[in-house]
Specification:
Layout: H1 3-34, E1 40-41, E2 44-48, E3 63-68, E4 80-86, E5 89-101, E6 104-110, E7 122-123, E8 127-136, H2 139-147, H3 151-154, H4 156-176, H5 182-190
Antiparallel strand pairs: 1-2, 2-3, 3-8, 4-5, 4-8, 5-6, 6-7
Length: 191
């Protein structure tokens, strides 16, 4: 490959990466603001994994898709659910036992990477949704930054870089275009 092709490849790669980052940030920010703080895409809530209790299947810092709603008493052994453990704390663990007491259903849960089951059973009313099996590693770190007060400011930086780079590329392309002079085109037609 010659140097010109390498520069073109690098330039194209940078453009694609910047656009992907920009569009990802737009989706994350807009969806989280539209959903009142909970990012949602195609009816699935996007949650960030903050601990290693479900590793290696779900890594710390990953994002996962959770299907909310429906009958929260439907889960069985082996299902992975997301539930409220405390007021502002969500946990995603596997159901290891279903316990029924009259009309109430409770779940004994356990993290795949934990040695023992969780101490408190989970009431079906505290279940937020079911893990769909969709996970993207490490994006959760980025989402946590973007959802912070200062993180939204970082949204502007890739956008400005993309605009500057686009302006540079457009300017370079315009400078390479030859503008035909009217006298040259008349001379060619006369001959």
């Amino acid at each position: 490959m010659n140097a010109k092709k390498i520069k073109k490849f690098i330039s194209s790669s940078i453009t694609v990466v910047l656009y992907l980052v920009l569009f990802t940030m737009i989706i994350v920010v807009v969806s989280s603001k539209a959903a009142g703080g909970e990012p949602e895409i195609f009816g699935k809530q996007i949650k960030t994994v903050l601990s290693g209790s479900m590793e290696p299947g779900i890594q710390t810092g990953s994002i996962i898709a959770v299907k909310p709603g429906g009958d929260m008493t439907r889960f069985k052994n082996g299902d992975v659910i997301t539930f409220k453990q405390e007021e502002n704390m969500l946990v995603t663990h596997r159901v290891v036992e279903v316990m029924k007491s009259g009309e109430h259903v409770m779940y004994k849960t356990k993290g795949d990477n934990n040695d023992a089951a969780d101490l408190e059973p989970v009431l079906s009313e505290n279940v937020v949704g079911e893990y769909t099996g969709f996970t993207i590693p490490y994006i959760g770190y980025f989402m946590n930054i973007m959802n912070s007060k200062n993180g939204a400011f970082l949204f502007i930086i890739p956008g400005l870089l993309l605009l500057c780079y686009s302006g540079f590329v457009i300017g370079k392309a315009l400078s390479q275009i030859e503008i035909k002079k009217p006298s040259e085109s008349i001379d060619k037609n006369v001959s």
